Amino acid sequence: MSISVLQIKHQQEIEKLNLTTQPLKTTKLFILAVRRYLSQSGSYLLSRGGGWFILLSAIFIISAILLANVDGPHEQHVKEVVQYLEFGLWWIALGVASSVGLGSGLHTFVLYLGPHIALFTLKATQCGRVDIKSAPYDTMNLNRSPLWLGKDCADLGPPLFPSSLVVPLSKILPQVQLEAILWGFGTALGELPPYFISRAARLSGSTMEKLDVSLENSGSFMSSSMYHLKRWLLFHAQYLNFFTILLLASIPNPLFDLAGIMSGQFGVGFWEFFLATVIGKAIIKTHIQTVFIIAICNNQLLYWLENELVWVLSFIPNSDSFVPNIVTKIHSVKNKFLTSKHPSTAVGKKWEFSMAFLWNTIVWIMVLNMFVQIVNSTAHGYLKKQQDKEIASLKNYSEKDS
């Protein structure tokens, strides 16, 4: 069999390999790939003096388990530490889920962080105070809503600002800053797999696959624009450095996975890539997004938009007769929205349960889709390496015969 025929056969095998058409083979290759990765990671740690790290980690885990299960005066402190750890791991995991998977990740900013910031801003604006959390970890979770969300403003205390309708952005931002930074740090961690895969390919002498040109022929404006942006980034990838990576990480864009791949392919150092990514995503980008959400939900922006609307309408002849009515209706809708409470009747609880069930169903469907994409991609990678070995052995055999 010639090499070209074998390559065509291999390409067809990869195209057919997925959990839908070949579930057993795909699962088997995924398990083999994970086992090989764990074996290589363990060997690497042991060869680089990682035995001490493994030993200390085991001692720490055993000590933590004993402290958590032994009663004593330390029990309350242990629970507090566990809650902080759950809080940190929760938001970091959401960040990782958002960026891992080469574009197939879960959009956790839209599902969790964005709504959390919006709800906190609305509650703080409604109650006229920002110290509504019982603790820094009193935030949105998968199976738990924050305690402050269901409390009345009277239970939280009197307003701390001159007017409950004006809460400075600078006072709200620190209250949601920690979870935003943790989420951003998680997104930076999620960008590491493409970098490491590309770097390993470069060190092994392999080259990355060609850019998929299917976007060019799809006919849509967005697809064509994405294709040209990718081509531009590929042609300028040799100029990637700390500041260009920082710039790409600081703005929401769908090209950062490609930037990570190119950084590994062109030999950008790990710490240079990782620090630029962390600063861009966990510090700059998350603050841009957080400030934007707060500005939208804060009454200061509503007041500004209201004043601008009144100013624009003032140029219309005879606007004095209907502008006051429009402003009154805007205030009525706004006050009704801010003072609305959670339903407490049986019908309300049933509606809330139905919405929660629908929301969790959507989230789990997206998580399942992300997991399927990761399994398929990992199986493809393992099969591709096996195929490369087969082609290499065929080339060696052909050279010996010639």
- Relative strand content: under 5%
Overall pLDDT metric: 75
Helix content: over 70%
Overall, the morphology is: globular
Q: What structural category do the secondary elements indicate?
A: mainly alpha
Order of helices and strands: HHHHHHHHHHHHHHH
Computed CA radius of gyration, to the nearest angstrom: 27 Å
Number of strands: 0
Describe it for me?
The protein is globular and about 95 Å long. It has 402 residues and is mainly alpha-helical. 72% of the residues lie in helices and 0% in strands. Residues 208-218 and 341-353 have low confidence and may be disordered. It contains 15 helices and no strands. The longest helix is centred in the last third of the chain and has 56 residues, at 346-401.
